[in-house]
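Hi everyone,

Forwarding the result from last night's run.
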Amino acid sequence: MGEHTVIIERASSSPLQGGLKQYLPLYKAILKRNLEYVKRLCELDKRALEARITVNLDTALHVAVGTGKVNHIVKYLLTKMSKDQLKLKNKDGNTVLSIAAIVGNVKAAREIVKIQPELNNVANDCEIVPLIEAARNGHKEMIKYLMQFNRDIFKSGGECDSIHGVSFVNLLIDAAFYDLALEWVKDNRSLATTELDTGETLLSAMARKPSAFPSGRMDSYVIVEFVQFAVYAILVTEKVNTARIYNKVRELVELLCKEITTDYERASSMLKRPFLLAAESGVHEVVKVIIDVFPDAIWFVDAENRNALQLAVMNRREKVFNLIYEMSDYTHLLLMSKDNFGNNVLHLAGKLAPQNQFCGAALQTQHELQWFKGIEKIVQPAYKKDKNYEEKTPAMVFTEEHEELVKEGQKWMKDAASSCTVAAALIATIVFAAAITVPGGTDDDGRPILSNENSFGIFYNTNSFSLYTSIVSILIFLSVLTSRFNEADFLFVLPTRFGYGLFMLLCSLVSMMITSAMTASLMISVRRGAGITLVAIVIAFCAQMFTHTQFPLLMELMFFTRGPSIYRNKCTHLYRDLN
């Protein structure tokens, strides 16, 4: 390939005579990192340097490089071996540099290249050079080192070279090395319009990587991830590194789109697949860039005649939906479109989402209802009664598609409410017993002996609060258990009741823990400072347990029942009535 021709022919690698058993001590010495014994064996048998010591026909240097932990032995062997011996391949056609690339042994690679730089272009039996091996195995430092020797490896201009080049960049994208992918595309801009063996482009590969974008890393559906992201954002280094990665990703997407749209007629065919894929995957960043450079992309449809807006509805991608809804002046035309089965957008909203985005079936059912009701607000009234080719209305589609999910949601909520009711009853029993059994006893007048202690006031108040909140939570959970569990109840009534009940239960639990701490403080007569410390420890422990167990569920219940709607800006009014 140009000046850097990839050598595919097998280098001279005929093994010398000698069984594997003869060189077993050498093999073991390398694995045990015993340099002195390796030296002794190599001095006694000059053929040991090129002998095959494994069933895979590896030489001693292959083994030493492959371990990644005996580079002192690697250096010794390199000083003793000739350049021809360094070219020896194993059974798979891998040279020692290929082995270094596979395991990510950069130190060994540096030493090898110093002596035999030609090995950079020697391919194995699968026609894969060391640089590609490093990319396949995700070794970034090795890739960065080998790239300096392979800048022109795919630049001969032939179709085969372009396919190899785009495959290499695709490997970088798969490994999340977006900065290296950007650097390589900048040097080889024709790769942006080169298709992979699968018929996809690099832009499609980026659209398949939601985790590369902020929308994929911090999904608004997952409260736990939001909390984690907020914690990590406090760390300046992590925040800066994340921002740098996102900038590289955005720059890469913009560069790919720019190169594709240099030919406007070609752009229509090359942007269609990544645009629809990004809409389906929820990567609104890619959707936005493509619409900016090619506004006609909003008219792209898939094989079933579904546009990006409809795909966003089907896959519950609210960010993509909002983006297209706000950017396009033809939203009403997109909403009027029907697929090959006669389904309008409300029929598609009635279909079950392809992936479960919540920890419980009840919350998933609520979310499905929110989408259906939200879309129902923005379509023409006639769409509600419109029938597809199966003679089904959108409501019929929704009920049929979500029948099993509603049953699972009913079971989930009943089981959870029953468990919480038992827990609340136990708490009520404990705190009631504590209320009638005053710590320290009472005097002749019936007054608590320890009533003058500061801890006693805290004990009395928290115990009363725990008792009342546990009783309230029992009543709320009983109302959940006796509900009708209709499909519509999952939208607001059931999640609201369950959320309030869970909140009351957690309040009673924390209060009970504080009450227990105050009881211990009163009984052992600890000093005030020690009592405050004990309370702080107990509260911190409860807060931690609360955060890791029930807080995410409670936040999801509150956020998606009482929080902002799925749709914003132009269509926020469509959903406000539901909340």
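Residues 14 and 88 are 8 Å apart (CA to CA).

Cheers,
N.
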